[in-house]
Amino acid sequence: MFKNLIKISVVSLFLFTKLFAGIELLGAGATFPYPLYSKMFDVYYKTYGIKVNYQSIGSGGGVRQLMEKTVDFGASDAFLSDEELKKFPNPVVHVPITVGAVVIAYNLPGNPELRLTPSVLVDIFMGKIKKWNDRRIKELNPDVDLPGLEIIVVYRSDGSGTTFIFTDYLCKISDEWKKKIGKGKSVKWLTGIGAKGNEGVSAFIKQTPGAIGYIELAYALQNNIPFVLLKNKAGRFVKPSVKSVSLAADIELPNDMRISLTNTSAEEGYPISGFTWIIVYRNLYHGKLSYKKAKELVKLLWWMIHDGQKYCEKLHYAPLSEKAVKKAEKIIRSIVYKGTPILKQN
Asked: Once rounded to an integer, what is the mean pLDDT over residues 153-161?
């Protein structure tokens, strides 16, 4: 009888532990917002006991895993096109989380501050301008002693939302780029060397004199890598910052929040800015989540667009505007489980 009591107690303890064990949410995707997501998820776990396991594998990988239903949410800096949406087995929604800048980072002796125009930037990434002391770069930076180093272009080798934002911008400023290369999470580059993730591109640039590449602002600042002041549509050389990125995002926003912010017409706006989104199934039952998990995911998303926004600026991302938060709230309220809204209406 004593042995039976022990067995019952062990089983009861096991069931109790299983019942009250913290739920773990699984996500994958963009490296662009990873410094921010890492902070947010850490704070959320310490506050609410809900662990978020997020794999920073690139936007393309995150979208693919969401489509395959092997993660609870995907993260992407590239919104899904109408064609991509049709490939999903069930409808998905985009929840904007923050706005960031894709900066043009480089490695030159003495780390001088450089200015570039859109046309010069395009020709560097098309391999037409091959040396750092090229006449066109020197004319824009007369006070900088530019070396005769070979320019080594570094690009993302993985499917990347950062690549999408950058190439989306290049398509808007160059018909030749649009025709020959185009935009996307991955494109066929005419020159350069590939590296995986914002982390990989940052590391390559830092270790390679003469290198130039595109990375998220937070990675450049964290790694002390200099970046370009880029001439915007209004004709101003703008330094990427939380302020200049916020200005780029101050535009009319669609209800589904699928919008490009590149090549802004804002006078002081930084031209290579973009939203980053968490993408989930509108009906989380179709994403193979339990109701408990679905409820926790929605609560997490709501927290990220409200309380979580206070961590944006500290990590060099722009918080969502009031307009963007209102749009995001409506999107989150539209998420259901077997047809029933998960978030209770106020």
From this structure: 94
